[in-house]
Design brief:
heterodimer; A: alpha+beta; Cytochrome-c3 Hydrogenase, chain B; three-stranded antiparallel β-sheet; B: alpha/beta; five-stranded mixed β-sheet; two-stranded parallel sheet; 9 strands
Chain lengths: 373, 155
């Protein structure tokens, strides 16, 4: 967008402690009145150098560290890592492990999208959806807690298997939740998605063109919000996602140009319904089996390297792992989806109003723990 | 295209600028002469047979005797992946930026500088990204000495 500025530009710091940045992020805004000429993100406040930690511990010990990157979707984060190591070692898991992993990943995707939608509504001045979303997320966390003892950071996916088998009655509990939850999505649409004020605040704001999104490596719901139909679960399947029946929602631009904040938000809401479909099928496909039968005694991959990516709630999470044939990884590089979308933030926020910066930031749904690692 | 044909295509186009390839592993790659990296990347992105429009990952790796920068790219249209590597001397690793090929390279290159100390020439906004601007050393170097304090604060 081209904007004429008066030349009287003021620098305004938003963050690092700001309720709408969803973590410790500082945006340096160059403002001309209410118009933002440039929004420069400054990241690194949560940097713990996960990659250095990973070089100094053995392969299985890295899993809890991956949880702490995107703490809103820890199941998906560890899944990517264990799949990468399994690919490196050529481990195959049985059907039970596969089904449980899919169910857990999709439940966590729902939980994560509920946070995204709820807090986004909150940012836009509507408090009730936040409570509704967190109420439903609570049930998912209860299922996780019952299975692995933790509500947020699970350490549940292990290389070659799972930490514990699920409790008896797990499938029923999950399906009951889905049956209850699906109508709730429609309620949320009535309350928030189709709300006139909400649409006015989001539908013409923060337009991301598909070309910009591809150039900046934007992935996941943010890419699909721009109308690009690409999902790793379908297009480069892992865990047998290709044998499951589900759709990939994309931004359609019902209320304005394609790629707006509303489109990105709506892709998440529609994805939640697809996740419900996946969970139903995976629960039906569960077979008995030992969830730890493929766990190797010693995890010591041969020298080599692998790049593995999975579809996390916030986009494609990639692990580039170099092994030198010892018990510890030689290098673990994480390609974080939030990092790449944050690098495009400067482009999509140029010329926006200060209040719209909050709308744009909420719509790309970043977790700073993953950006800073 | 499979990795074989991508490697063959690159060798055919760039000849001796491609210093070697390994295509039998899980992550097939070619080594490129550092000076050529922007041209090779642009070719990979623009050629109709390749169309590598998505730079998935850019990582710096310290191999004790050299620094490697790894570019992993993917084509959304053709659904294939390939990696390029540049081998650089440890004392002064320098490369030209590929920011003009993929916008996302801007931040990835800043991270590679921040963590491994690779300098990218021609970069529009070259500074540290995750660590403070006055931090000393590059943490992902294998011989990195952990500091005990930062600005008189214990770390």
């Amino acid at each position: 967008m081209q904007v004429e500025y008066s030349g009287d530009v003021m620098t305004l710091n938003m963050g690092p402690q700001h309720p709408s940045t969803h973590g410790v992020l500082r945006l340096e805004l160059k403002t001309d009145g209410e118009v933002v000429a440039e929004a420069i993100p400054h990241i690194g406040y949560l940097h713990r150098c996960f990659e250095k930690h990973a070089e100094n511990i053995e392969y299985p010990g890295v899993v809890p560290f991956t949880d702490r990157m995107d703490y809103c979707a820890a199941m998906n984060q560890e899944l990517g890592y264990v799949l990468a190591v399994e690919k490196l070692m050529g481990i195959k898991v049985n059907n039970r492990v596969r089904c449980i992993r899919i169910i857990m990943a999709e439940l966590n995707r729902i939980a994560s999208h509920l946070i995204a939608a709820g807090t986004y509504g909150n940012d836009m001045g509507s408090f009730t959806p936040f409570l509704w979303c967190f109420r439903d997320r609570e049930t998912i966390l209860d299922i996780f807690e019952e299975t692995c003892g933790a509500r947020l950071l699970y350490n549940y996916n292990w290389i070659g298997g799972l930490m514990f088998d699920v409790k008896s009655g797990f499938e029923k509990k999950v399906v009951d939740f889905i049956n209850y939850f699906e109508p709730q999505v429609d309620n949320l649409n009535t309350l928030l998605s189709d709300n006139y004020i909400f649409i006015k605040r989001t539908a013409n704001v923060g337009i991301m063109s598909p070309e910009l999104a591809l150039s900046y490596g934007v992935t996941g719901p943010n890419l699909r919000g721009s109308g690009v139909k690409f999902d790793v679960r379908k297009d480069e399947p892992y865990l047998g996602y290709d044998q499951l029946d589900f759709d990939i929602p994309v931004g359609l631009g019902e209320h304005g140009p394609v790629g707006s904040c509303w489109d990105r938000y709506m892709v998440r809401i529609r994805e939640v319904k697809e996740s419900c479909k996946i969970i139903r099928q995976a629960a039906a496909q569960m077979t008995p089996g030992d969830v730890q039968e493929s766990i190797p005694k010693r995890i010591k991959p041969a020298a080599g390297e692998v790049y593995m990516r999975t579809e996390c709630p916030r986009g494609e999470l990639g692990y580039y792992i170099v092994s030198d044939g010892t018990l510890k990884p030689y290098r673990v590089k994480v390609k974080s989806p939030c990092f790449t979308v944050m690098s495009a933030f400067r482009e999509i926020s140029r010329g926006a109003m200060i209040a719209d910066i909050i709308a744009i930031l909420g719509s790309v749904d970043v977790v700073l723990g993953e950006i800073d690692r | 295209m499979n990795a074989d044909s991508i490697a063959a295509l690159l060798s055919e186009k760039f000849g001796e600028k491609i210093l070697g390839s390994k295509i039998d592993g899980l992550n097939p790659w070619s080594v490129v002469a550092p000076a050529e990296i922007p041209d090779v990347c642009r070719f990979l992105r623009d050629d109709d047979r390749l169309l590598m429009d998505h730079l998935e990952c850019l990582a710096g790796v310290d191999y004790k005797d050299r620094i490697e920068v790894v570019y992993i790219m993917y084509s959304m249209k053709h659904r294939h992946r390939y990696a390029l590597k540049c081998r650089l001397p440890r004392e002064a690793p320098r490369l030209r930026t590929v920011e003009s090929v993929w916008g996302v390279a801007n931040w990835h290159e800043r991270e590679a500088y921040d963590m491994v100390g690779v300098v990218f020439e021609g970069h529009s906004d070259f500074r540290r990204i995750l660590l403070p601007d006055d931090w000393e050393g590059y943490p992902l170097r294998k011989d990195y000495k952990f500091p005990t304090s930062y600005r008189d604060m214990p770390v």
